[in-house]
């Protein structure tokens, strides 16, 4: 929450708002208009707050369809967004929201429509950004291939995708297994602790340090940099100002530049920095592009896997019959893992920008329109997924979901993420009878990252 009283002048207003809405041109214009108004503070406060929390606590079926705005962080934090999407899928599956804190946007809510948008990257471009609430890096002009179109996207993806090739994953497996074991053996049995911090964050951070061959003792810096890049600066934030965030990201750039210089002068190796330093398409990257690709890999492999690790524990606790099924047959871990990823859907959505006038389900999109593909909704589409609200660990086609996207941008790390989750659950089932959730989970305040900051648990050892 930003404290408006703290802003002494318009420069600060823009500095606070630009990163938050740097893709919401309409919203920026709106702030520009307010800047000329005499009652700046009041209007700004009222307008932004109004747009932000208008849906929470309301029955989605009594709101006129054209007033529905699903892009509200509070809705996701309260886990209250589901019925909004249920209604949109039934009554207006391709829905236009004319006003939101991120400007106007289209919502695509059904599984097959999302596949259609993903399948046509020429018309639905990624180059203008990929989240409705932008990844918060505008203090530095960071470039990432997830937010590029062809041919540049394909060239850069090709250079780094080897790190997650089956051969490399097989080589990584024993190390991940060992690290999973060390983490699980260090946990306090019988005491309440936060699973998110002790397991979900720790394991994903260790994996990132391994992928980058980053100094192991400094690994929490990776989590810190990722968190700083994706959260808002503000009085209660991890960093207080845009300048502070820029300094943190510059530290990140400095650390990785040193590693780059080290690797570029040595023969190519299997870690990501070495691959970037020696790859044909990436070795001449600008510093901000280099940082962008690193941030993409850090962020891509961080929040998502982290929240799937926490989500799995929650899903099994909410569905004790499935936990029993798993205890009876731990061989089901292989099909449970993709079901956890569908059930959790760690990224709510991805966004595209229309490059030419086109149609979807009879709705007319104009060049420049923003189109948000809501994976959270597609993954609950009853026309494609049987009993979509149920968590079923032995589904027939568990990998048939949208959590990794689809098409040319489909998640590069999907097999790595699945492997981490599989090894973790094998380790858990070997050691514990139950990871019991003993308090309410605290969910993230975000329209993009669907996850948890706290999940209090207690471990029950195997009898
Ligand atoms: C892209 C989800 C784990 C690296 C994506 C996309 C999604 C996603 C939705 C965009 C797909 C699209 O636009 O069609 C997830 C989920 C994960 C996960 C749910 C865990 C459960 C990882 C890991 C890595 C990673 C571990 C690290 C290696 C990437 C990269 C891209 C990407 C590099 C960009 C691909 C491109 O634009 O070509 N991910 N991800 N992800 N992910 Fe993941």
Detailed description of the structure:
The chain is α+β, with helices and mostly antiparallel strands and 463 residues long. The protein has 2 domains: 108 residues, no CATH class; 310 residues, Cytochrome p450 (Orthogonal Bundle). Helices cover 48% and strands 10% of the residues. The chain is built from 18 helices and 12 strands. The strands form 4 sheets. A 5-stranded mixed beta sheet has the order 1-2-8-5-3. Strand 6 and strand 7 form a beta hairpin. Helix 9 packs antiparallel against helix 14 and helix 11 packs across helix 12. It is globular, with a radius of gyration of 22 Å. The N terminus is likely disordered. Bound molecules: protoporphyrin IX containing FE. The site of protoporphyrin IX containing FE has 28 residues, from helix 13, helix 14 and helix 18.
A few lines on this structure:
By secondary structure, the chain is an alpha+beta fold. It folds into two domains: 4-111, no CATH class; 152-461, Cytochrome P450 (Cytochrome p450, Orthogonal Bundle), CATH 1.10.630.10. The protein is built from 18 helices and twelve strands.
């Amino acid at each position: 929450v930003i404290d408006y009283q703290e802003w002494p002048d318009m420069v600060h207003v823009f500095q606070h708002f630009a990163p938050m809405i740097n893709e919401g041109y309409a919203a920026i214009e709106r702030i520009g208009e307010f800047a000329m108004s005499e009652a700046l503070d009041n209007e700004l406060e009222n307008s932004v707050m109004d747009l932000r929390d208008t849906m929470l606590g309301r029955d989605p079926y009594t709101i006129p369809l054209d007033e529905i705005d699903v892009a509200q962080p509070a809705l996701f934090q309260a886990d209250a967004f589901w019925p909004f999407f249920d209604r949109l899928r039934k009554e207006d599956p391709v829905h236009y929201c004319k006003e939101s804190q991120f400007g106007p946007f289209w919502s695509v809510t059904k599984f097959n429509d999302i596949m259609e948008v993903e399948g046509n990257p020429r018309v639905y471009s990624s180059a203008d950004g990929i989240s409705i609430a932008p990844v918060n890096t505008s203090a530095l002009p960071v470039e990432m291939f997830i937010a590029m179109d062809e041919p540049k996207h394909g060239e850069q993806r090709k250079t780094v995708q080897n790190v997650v090739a089956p051969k490399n994953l097989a080589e990584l497996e024993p190390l991940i297994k060992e690290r999973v074991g060390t983490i699980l053996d260090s946990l306090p049995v019988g005491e309440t602790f936060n699973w998110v911090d002790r397991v979900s964050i720790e394991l994903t951070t260790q994996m990132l340090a391994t992928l980058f061959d980053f100094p192991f003792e400094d690994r929490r810096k990776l989590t810190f940099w990722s968190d700083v890049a994706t959260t808002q600066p503000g009085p209660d934030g991890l960093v207080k100002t845009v300048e502070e965030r820029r300094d943190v990201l510059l530290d990140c750039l400095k650390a990785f530049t040193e590693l780059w210089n080290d690797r570029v002068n040595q023969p190519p190796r299997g870690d990501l920095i070495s691959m970037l330093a020696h790859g044909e398409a990436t070795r001449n990257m600008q510093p901000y592009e280099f940082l962008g690709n690193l941030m993409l890999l850090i962020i891509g492999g961080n929040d998502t896997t982290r929240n799937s690790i926490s989500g799995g524990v929650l899903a099994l606790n909410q569905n004790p019959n499935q936990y029993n099924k798993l205890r009876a047959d731990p061989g089901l871990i292989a099909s449970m893992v993709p079901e956890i990823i569908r059930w959790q859907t760690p990224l709510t959505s991805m966004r595209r920008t229309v490059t030419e006038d086109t149609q979807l389900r009879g709705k007319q999109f104009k060049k420049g329109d923003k189109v948000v593909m809501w994976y959270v909704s597609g993954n609950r589409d009853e026309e494609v997924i049987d009993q979509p609200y149920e968590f079923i660990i032995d589904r027939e086609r568990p990998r048939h979901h949208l959590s990794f996207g689809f098409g040319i941008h489909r998640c590069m790390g999907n097999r790595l993420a699945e492997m981490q989750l599989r090894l973790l659950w094998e380790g858990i089932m070997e050691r514990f009878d139950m990871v019991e959730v003993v308090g309410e989970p605290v969910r993230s305040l975000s329209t993009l990252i669907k996850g948890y900051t706290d999940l209090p648990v207690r471990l029950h050892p195997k009898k």
